[in-house]
């Protein structure tokens, strides 16, 4: 018996909508837009959008699922080295910065964005605990702060550090946290 396949247009429509959501998040227009605008920009009907995503919250959830497939996250999950963990975290934040700024900014008022931020935090904490092991639990709070998107953003945008300088600064601070 052959496996049932979805029509090619289903995946293409979904991909088109997700590409528009990413574009709109990155340019800051998503949270001010309507579902109809998203559908129109993606070239699909409103009914098709609702069929794939169910709601505006579903759009954000689906975008977050796509972001979770970022290959840098796989590299983070495969490292046991704290300095490499910090470097990869900065690489991930940088690769997704424009969309993350919008999601983190909307977390106070958008339940899907808030859920995403919380899921991301829990995932990062789990990976950080794995890398640190049980012997470094005193260092966890400072390392959790050092590897956060907020810290990355503060150093990158507000302190004006280059991405490489952010990595070096956070690695140095991580080493100090472990030795304290």
Describe the structure.
The chain is an all-alpha fold. 76% of the residues lie in helices and 0% in strands. It has helices spanning 8-27, 35-42, 46-53, 56-67, 71-77, 82-106, 111-132, 140-146, 149-158, 163-179. Helix 4 packs parallel to helix 7, helix 5 crosses helix 6 and helix 6 (82-106) packs antiparallel against helix 7. The longest helix has 25 residues, at 82-106. The radius of gyration is 19 Å and the shape is elongated.
Supply database-style keywords.
mainly alpha; elongated; 180 residues
Average pLDDT, rounded to a whole number, is 88
Number of strands: 0
What order do the helices and strands follow? HHHHHHHHHH
Helix percentage range = over 70%
Number of helices: 10
Give the overall silhouette: elongated
Distance between the termini: 62 Å
Unreliable sequence segments? 1-9
Strand content: under 5%
In short:
The chain has 180 residues and is mostly helical. It has 10 helices and no strands. The chain has helices spanning 8-27, 35-42, 46-53, 56-67, 71-77, 82-106, 111-132, 140-146, 149-158, 163-179.
């Amino acid at each position: 018996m052959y496996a049932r396949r979805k029509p090619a247009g289903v995946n293409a429509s979904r991909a088109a909508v997700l590409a528009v959501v990413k574009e709109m998040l990155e340019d800051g227009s998503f949270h001010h837009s309507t579902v109809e605008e998203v559908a129109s920009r993606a070239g699909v009907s409103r009914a098709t959008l609702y069929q794939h995503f169910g709601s505006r919250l579903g759009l954000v959830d689906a975008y977050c699922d796509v972001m979770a497939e970022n290959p840098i996250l796989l590299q983070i999950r495969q490292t046991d080295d704290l300095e490499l963990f910090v470097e990869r975290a900065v690489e991930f934040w940088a690769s997704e910065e424009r969309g993350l700024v919008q999601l983190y900014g909307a977390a106070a008022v958008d339940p899907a964005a808030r859920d995403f931020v919380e899921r991301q935090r829990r995932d990062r904490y789990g990976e950080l605990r794995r890398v640190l092991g049980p012997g470094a639990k005193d260092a966890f709070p400072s390392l959790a702060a050092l590897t956060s998107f907020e810290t990355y953003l503060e150093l990158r945008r507000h302190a004006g550090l280059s991405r490489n300088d952010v990595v070096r600064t956070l690695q140095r601070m991580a080493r100090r946290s472990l030795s304290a």
